[in-house]
Amino acid sequence: PGGFPMKLLAYLAAQRPVVAVDHAANGAPVLRVANNARAFAHGIRDLFTDRALAERLGIAGRGHLARAHGGPAALAAIDSALAATVRGKRTGASVTAAARPPTIESTLRDR
Length: 111
Known about the structure:
- It is a single chain.
- The chain is mainly α.
- Helix content is 62%, strand content 5%.
- The protein has helices at residues 6-13, 22-25, 37-49, 51-69, 71-89, 104-109, and strands at residues 19-21, 31-33.
- Helix 2 links the parallel strand 1 and strand 2 (31-33).
């Protein structure tokens, strides 16, 4: 729950249009279909017969991947996890701005 199948991430990165069942898409701009074989087959057929749709979905998917999982989003997730770890080790103590470890993003920016 909350994640993507790795295959889906690879297809989005390759700017390929994707037909997926609703629970696997998890918010990505893919051609969603009902969770049955007939609807899945119709989705595949639609991508083969409507090349403009296939191209739009591929472009939208790659853009979604870049925004949701690319550089800034990935750095923010790492920073959040590190901050939570630091807070957990400093139980009861407030962390002032001066005592906070630098974020990965600020470290890269200040180089």
